[in-house]
Structures are given as C-alpha cells and as structure tokens.
Write a structure and sequence with these properties.
The complex is a heterodimer of chains A (223) and B (226).
Chain A lengths: L1 E12 L2 E12 L3 E5 L6 H8 L7 E6 L3 E4 L11 H11 L5 H11 L15 H13 L5 E5 L7 H16 L3 E5 L3 H7 L2 E6 L2 E7 L2 H5 L2 H7 L4
Parallel strand pairs in A: 3-7, 3-8, 5-6, 6-7
Antiparallel strand pairs in A: 1-2, 1-4, 8-9
Helix pairs in contact in A: 2-3, 3-4, 4-5
Chain B lengths: L1 H20 L1 H20 L4 H29 L6 H7 L4 H31 L7 H25 L6 H28 L7 H28 L2
Helix pairs in contact in B: 1-5, 2-3, 2-5, 3-5, 3-6, 3-7, 5-6, 5-8, 6-7, 6-8, 7-8
Classes of the chains: A alpha/beta (223), B mainly alpha (226).
Chain lengths: 223, 226
C-alpha cells in the first residue's frame, strides 16, 4: 500500500521541463530520502505532493493528512508562538487546537516562551516553532524540503526525534535533502532525481550509509 | 463546514495581526482623512453643489483607501512563506480567499466609519439622515470593493510592482459598482429615500456583489495553485 504516488508527472516552467515523467511510489510507513543535485526537480516534486503546484501532465495520489515543512519557516512574526500554533491547528481541523499547541510547544522546548512574539525569537527558536507547526496535527504524511538545512544543533535533534517517533507511529516521510548522512540515518528508501527524472528508487542499501557519494557515482548521471 | 471554520480562522488571524501592527489601517485612514480635508479646502462650493458631488467624493476616497487595505491581503502571507503553509493545509483556496475578504471588509468598514463623521463635519453634510439606507449601500459597496480587491491581491501577490498593478487592475472592474454606490449615496445624502432609480442602483450593487463573489470563489483555485 502506498501513501504517496506520482505517475508520469511532468512540470513545465515556461518551456523548461522541471519534471520529465517522474514516477514514484512511497510505501505507507516508510521514509524516503529524495536526493539529487540542485535543479534536479526535488522541490518541484515535493511542492506538487504538498498541493502547492499542479503537474502539467501526469497524476498524483496522496492517501492521508499531510504536513509540510518548506524552505520558509511558515509562521507569523506578529503572532505569539501559541497563537501561531492555535491558528494552524484550527486550519488543520485539530479538535482542541489550544491543547495541541501547548503540547507541541513543550515538545520542541518552547513552552516557557509560548506567549512571546515569533519575531522576537532567535533563529533557532523560530525553526523549532516551524517544526512544531509541521507536526502539530500529527500528519500521516510528512513532506520535508531540505529539513536539516540551516537548523541549529538543538533544532536538528528535535526534528530527528520527532521524525523517529512519527516513523515509529506509522507515518510516511518524504524528504528532499543534500545532507545525505542525516537523511540516511532515518531513510528506509531512497529515490534519486536527475534532470527531472527518477533514475533510481528503492530500499536504502548498506553501502549508502558507509559511502554517501556511492549513490551519486552509481546513478548520478543520465547517459 | 471545515472550509467555513478555516475562513473564520483566517479572518480572525488577519484582523488580529492588522490591529496589532496597524500597517494598512493607519495608512488607509490617514489617506482618507487627508484627502477629505484637502478637498474641503480646494473647492469653494455652494450647498447644492456640495450635495451633488458628495457621493462621488466619498466613494473615490473609500475606493482608494480600499486599495491600500486589500493590497496587504495576500501580501501579508509572503514573509516566511506563510502562503505555502496555508495552501498546503486542508483549507480550500476559496476559504482562504473568503477569510481574507471578510478581514479586509471589516478593516475598510473601520476606515469608512472613521472618515464619515469627518466628511460630514468638513462638508457640512447631514449624513445621519437616511442612515439605515446609507449603511446598506456602504455595506454592499464595501463588500464589492473588498471581494474584487482581494481577488486581485491574490493575482498580484508575486508581482514585483503589486502596489501599482493592483489599482490598475482593480478600478476598471469597480466602475459599475462605483457608479451605483456614488449615485445612491448622493441621493441619500441629499435627503431622498430609497426608491425609483435608487432601487435600480441598489440592485446593481447586489448583482455586482453576487456575481463577483461567486466568480472569485470559483476561480481563486486557479489563481493560487499554478
């Protein structure tokens, strides 16, 4: 049973094909690391999965509630941390948004500053608030676009712990990343994009852990 | 039902952040007051001439102030990529649009309620006569301005010169609404009651609101998700 699937998905920006017939199935309960060089189409594919963009051709199937963590932190500077999470809880249809917001803030270590405005937070605190926002509604599918990029150590630890817990509870994770070592610790599957095409998709092999560059050497260039 | 709850949450959030920062409401209210005061000094009009231009002047000021309000509608979501988070949530695009339109509607109403007494004072116009009918015209026309303005706010949100583009797109579409609102307001301020031609103008406002609200709710999906 798959949680996320793309079937021959094409996406054009003007005349440029960012995705060229990308086909991918992500099994429910797995963690897929979406790898590829800059411009390979990782973010475009994730944005399509997150309903932020429509494919020009092809079909997308999503089975479950999604949570999205993109490049921006996606929180309002002029609301407090608590108000931010209550708002997003209401949008996500969470039964008791205030309770969920308090729990999420405690989980990321922001419980004591929950009434502080997001704009007054340090960069690391804002990133943790973004992580809390993405996990607030206990999504069944997590779509993470380069989640470890520019996170501080504490935020990386919080995110890894939340992702491990989510996986243990049966959530599906799709994350694009350039930080292969961090991703490989969590990933059960790996897909490689090259110039808009999926050139490899399958379970994580042991050699990927010991030698992250192996994947790029093996599948990295379209001949 | 979840769509309406999302719309309410978005409207509440927009009002909360705007009343906290006062970014657009201060600009719109100041603009409306300055224009009303300047016009009162600029022209030396007799009483009848004043009443003849009253509706036109009022709605020009309100529509310009409205552009300042609606311009912030979707632009408010740009910092930190909040629009992406809204779009990736289960809230349908129409509920995001509806929430933003409702928030803009109340913000513009506040500006109108602040500037209406100033208008009466500086132009010596008795705006409290026929206030019920005038309030109905104000509510209908304000909704029309905000619903069309919020649509174009979504269209221009990623345009570099959106502050310039929005009025260019907005005002031609608003012409029928403004004609109706200006004519009815002039008549009501002049002491006429609703009836005859005024009823036709009122129907025009209702029709405009219904058509553009339905169109915007239907088309917003194509505007926001590309």
């Amino acid at each position: 049973m798959f949680a996320v699937a793309a079937d021959r998905v094409w996406k054009y920006f003007g005349d440029f094909p960012a995705l060229r017939g990308a086909t991918l199935e992500v099994r429910a309960g797995s963690c897929l690391a979406l790898l590829g060089r800059n411009g390979a189409g990782k973010t475009t594919l994730l944005r399509i999965f997150a309903n932020l963009s429509k494919p020009t051709k092809g079909e997308i199937k999503i089975h479950g509630r999604t949570g999205y963590l993109g490049h921006g932190i996606g929180v309002y500077d002029d609301l407090s941390a608590f108000e931010n999470l209550v708002f997003f809880g209401e949008l996500q249809g969470v039964a008791n948004p205030a309770k969920a917001a308090n729990e999420a803030l405690e989980r990321v270590g922001l419980g004591r500053v929950k009434d502080g405005m997001a704009r007054e937070f340090s960069r690391g605190m804002r990133q943790r608030l973004a992580v809390a926002r993405a996990f607030l509604h206990k999504p069944e599918i997590l779509l993470l676009d380069e989640p470890f990029t520019s996170l501080d150590d504490k935020a990386i630890a919080v995110l890894q712990s939340l992702l491990s817990d989510a996986l243990a509870q049966g959530a599906t994770i799709v994350m694009s990343t350039h930080q292969i070592r961090e991703a490989m610790e969590l990933a059960t599957h790996v897909a490689m994009l090259e110039r808009g095409k999926i050139v490899h998709a399958g379970p994580r092999a042991p050699e990927m852990l010991s030698d992250p560059a192996w994947l790029y050497r093996t599948y990295g260039e379209i001949q | 039902m979840q769509g309406l709850r999302s719309a309410f949450a978005i409207a509440k959030k927009d009002l909360q952040t705007e009343l906290r920062t006062k970014e657009s409401i201060n600009a719109a209210a100041s603009f409306a007051l300055v224009i009303l005061v300047l016009f009162s000094f600029a022209f030396d009009l007799g009483r009848e001439e004043l009443y003849a231009i009253s509706g036109g002047l009022l709605w020009l000021v309100y529509s310009f102030a409205g552009a300042l309000i609606v311009n912030r509608g979707f632009a408010r979501e740009l910092p930190n990529d909040c629009l992406e988070v809204l779009m990736s949530s289960p809230a349908p695009a129409w509920s995001i649009f509806l929430g933003k339109s409702v928030a803009a509607f109340f913000l513009l109403l506040i500006v109108e309620l602040i500037s209406l007494p100033v208008f009466g004072l500086f132009y010596n116009i008795r705006w409290l006569q026929n206030f019920g009918s005038l309030a109905m015209v104000i509510l209908l026309a304000t909704w029309g301005i905000t619903v069309v303005g919020t649509s174009f706010s979504a269209v221009t949100v990623n345009v570099r010169l959106r502050e310039l583009m929005l009025p260019v797109l907005l005002y031609p579409i608003l012409i029928p609404l403004l004609i109706g609102a200006m004519g009815t307001t002039t008549a009501l301020l002049g002491g006429e009651s609703l009836g005859g031609d005024n009823i036709a103008s009122l129907r025009l406002l209702i029709g405009f609101d219904a058509i553009y609200t339905a169109l915007a709710l239907y088309l917003i999906d194509f505007v926001l998700i590309v």
